[in-house]
Write a structure and sequence with these properties.
The protein has one domain (7-264): TIM Barrel (Alpha-Beta Barrel), CATH 3.20.20.20. The longest helix is centred in the first third of the chain and has 18 residues, at 62-79. An eight-stranded parallel β-sheet has the order 6-5-4-3-2-1-8-7. Helices cover 42% and strands 13% of the residues. The protein has helices spanning 28-41, 62-79, 92-100, 118-125, 150-166, 185-193, 213-219, 225-238, 249-264; strands at residues 7-13, 45-49, 85-88, 105-108, 129-132, 173-176, 206-207, 243-246. By secondary structure, it is an alpha/beta fold. Strand 2 (45-49), helix 2 (62-79) and strand 3 form a beta-alpha-beta unit. The chain is globular, with a radius of gyration of 17 Å.
């Protein structure tokens, strides 16, 4: 991918229980319509997910996830054959099935922790891979509130997990610090404000803060999460983020244009 300019990854949840938009796009027709809108607005990547990992949520089975994702992915590739589709999954079986159907990227919230077959599959096949920092298991990952030298913690995770991938040869990896996953409020904001302290091997960094609870925890329950998302994404771009994962593509594309123009004349 050409990341000479920041990329916008539009979220397409085909689940009944995602924290922000659960149930809105869990039919093929609704998913296609939303994907078309995000691409028209300027999304560079569509991130398709069929297993919600929001706090206090039961994790979908592999069969449920497959039944949600594969029909939508097939329809997306038929209608938008040039679209870059990422698959949000921590299961190797789902990843392999989706790559076989034309998916370009695997976005794994566990960095390969939740399925020991994931990293060997990705590494051996050199599949573009979003590696997110995570702790625990799918059931316990939100019970942590990591603090202390969070940058060092995340860097050590990336070093270890990337070394496994790189043992299979050169890889295309995108690093996601896992903001909102198992960190304290202070740690989440610390990761957002100093990306270079955990950037490993000059790999691009993906930031996903869209509508997360860290916004209202700081500003109060009445705060507008979309406005907060725009502010935090602007901060992320100012600190060198390469990909923004968002629900509202239009807002993200506009802030990207403003930030990149301002940077070009500074």
């Amino acid at each position: 991918m050409n990341l000479s300019f920041p990329a916008i990854m539009g979220i397409l949840n085909v689940t009944p229980d995602s924290f922000s938009d659960g149930g809105q796009y869990n039919s093929v027709d609704a998913a296609l319509k939303h994907c078309e809108e995000m691409l028209r607005q300027g999304a560079d990547i569509i991130d398709l997910g069929g297993c919600s990992t929001r706090p206090n949520n039961s994790i979908a089975t592999q069969e449920e996830e497959m039944e949600r994702v594969i029909p939508v992915l097939k329809a997306l590739k038929r209608q938008f054959p040039e679209a870059v589709i990422s698959i949000d999954t921590f299961r190797k079986t789902i990843a392999e099935a989706c790559v076989n159907e034309g998916a370009s990227i695997i976005n794994d919230i566990s960095g390969g922790l939740f399925d020991p077959d994931m990293l060997p599959y990705i590494g051996q096949n050199h599949i573009p891979y979003v590696m997110m920092h995570c702790v625990g298991t799918p059931e316990t990952m939100h019970q942590y509130a990591l603090e202390g030298d969070i940058h060092q913690t995340v860097m050590e995770f990336f070093e270890h997990r990337c070394s496994i991938l790189e043992s299979y040869g050169p890889q295309e990896v995108f690093l996601d610090p896992g903001i909102g996953f198992g960190k304290s409020l202070k740690a989440n904001y610390a990761l957002l404000s100093d990306l270079e302290r955990y950037r490993y091997h000059h790999y691009p960094i993906l930031i996903g803060v869209s509508r997360k609870s860290m916004i209202r925890k700081l500003l109060g329950p009445e705060a507008d999460p979309e406005n907060g998302t725009t502010v935090l994404n602007t901060l992320a771009l100012a600190h060198g983020a390469d990909i923004l994962r968002v629900h509202d593509v239009k807002n993200a594309v506009e802030l990207k244009k403003l930030c990149t123009f301002a940077a070009s004349i500074s």
